[in-house]
């Protein structure tokens, strides 16, 4: 993505996540806000070179450490310019933003999910913040292959301090971003975002 489209996507994603996690909300910050400092413990370690995969749409996502095994839908942009989110439904599933790289391609592939789904209870990413460095994330692809990622960092950040550059910035290797809401819940929804960073491992 170009810097301009990436910035627009980041703002749209931030706005949509505020209403994606079980309650109404309003935007509380700008995608142009400076990103928060990243602690040394959360800086991804150097990864050995792994060859990028060809483009293939993700159809499933498995995260054994937190019991996630879900189908993946495709998400685009809503009429108001915000990123679409999966529908609030009993059988909640994750959604891949189709204008990001597919999992395994060079660049940051972005998958979003709910933390709660209204009266239906827990969302598919309810336990995302419990992941640890080294945990595996497996994206099942339309071509029958799988892209296996290893978690490098998990961050919980205030929505107003969303780290745009770290999440959406260009990278020279295949990476994955998993995003949901988190932190304290208020009448307007959740105050924070939980972001998982992972790199292609096999």
From TrEMBL:
Native source organism of the sequence: Streptomyces pseudovenezuelae
Gene3D superfamilies for the chain: Sortase (2.40.260.10)
Coiled-coil residue windows: none
UniProt key word Calcium: no
PROSITE patterns: PROKAR_LIPOPROTEIN
Domain of life: Bacteria
Keyword line: Hydrolase, Signal
Signal sequence region: 1-22
Record's keyword annotation contains Membrane: no
Alphabetical list of NCBIfam families matching this protein: class_F_sortase
Residue segments, region Disordered: 25-45
Name the record gives this protein: LPXTG-site transpeptidase (Sortase) family protein
Compositionally biased intervals (Pro residues): 33-45
